[in-house]
Amino acid sequence: MLKIEKYINEKREQSLHFPNLVVWMARRLLPNAAQTELAAKGISLPAIDEARKNGQSYQTELTILERGIEKRVIVTLT
User: Do 62 and 41 touch, CB atoms closer than 8 A?
Assistant: First the structure.
């Protein structure tokens, strides 16, 4: 399961859950330019997909600015 959580001041604002199939699809359908942009922000689809294939967990954290508000995003593969 892929989980994406957004936090503002350590309070969870949003939590999204996706089946692992979404990782596989994104890896194959997103253009290389989009995958490069995600990787530059700390979300490596190849690394997430490799962890998925090997049955391993994966987690990354990044900070984004959304509508002028700083948010912490945690991406977890379980």
Answer: yes
Q: Which amino acid is at 26?
A: A
The structure's pTM equals 0.85
- Nearest 5°: the CA angle 25, 26, 27 is 90
**E strand intervals along the chain:** 2-8, 11-18, 58-66, 69-77
Secondary-structure percent of the chain, ordered helix, strand, coil, rounded to 5? 35, 40, 25
Q: What is the pLDDT of residues 42-62, one digit of tens each?
A: 999 999 999 999 999 999 999
Residue with tokens 């959304």: 66
* 55 phi-psi bin (left φ>0, alpha ψ -120 to 50, beta other): left
